[in-house]
Amino acid sequence: MRQKLAPRFGDSETQWMVREVMEQVFARSRTDLIVDGDKPAAPVRVELVDKIVARLLANEPLQYILGYETFMGLKFKVTPAVLIPRPETEELVELIVSRYGERKDLRVLDLGTGSGCIALSLSRYLPFSEVTGVDISDDALAVARDNAASLGVRSATFVKADMLDLHLPGKFDIVVSNPPYVMESERASMQPNVLDYEPQHALFVPDDDPLKFYKAAALFARTALNPGGALFFELNPLTADALAQWLKEQGWDSVEIVNDARGLKRFMVAKLPQES
Fold first, then answer.
1. pTM listed for this prediction
2. ∠218-105-74 over CA atoms, to 5°?
3. Residue 247 burial (CB < 10 Å; 0-12/13-18/19+)?
């Protein structure tokens, strides 16, 4: 695996791939694999490893091959119907938990839930919260519900709805979204494993209307949030300032851009005024 993958992916990513594949194929911990490293492998397992290597060299993401990704310390099923959860999105969840982790009985709405990684993580880390995840894709909702079942989360509900035309009952304390935000003009800079395998509808927006999902979510949140409620977004750094300006023009009480671990404008927090 190392000999075949390192020239393509580099030493660090190859090391991660080898570790994940070996633990999955042999159903052994990393320690056990090291201790038993001199024992011969069954031919059927060697064949399975070879097939996985071939799929990796064809640019198929390892997460889709293995069928899972770890997010916020939890194991999430992923299929080509959903985006693979990213470390940046973990930072979004951490941001919400850092500010609301002491609050109980919050009602949270996750727009464009995909695998449910945001919704279900918040269900785990916000005490006694009630979380609703929304997506337009039946296949994505099926994955999210499978993840809720495997994680034993009963406080999350998943609903089919179009982010651009939302009509949902009830009031919420938090609305969060990691919507499609990659502009079509950015395609050329993206990796083949993303372009060839991940769902395009969950990634791209037109260059002439890059904020359309953000604006729809914010307009809905104005009426769906309780007074003092908060709106959290994951951002495209290229359009962060334009979105902040638009939100301020829409009368949000406060609009804050938060940098990610790499120093990029990656998150936004906007709040409604408290009732006087």
1. 0.94
2. 80
3. buried
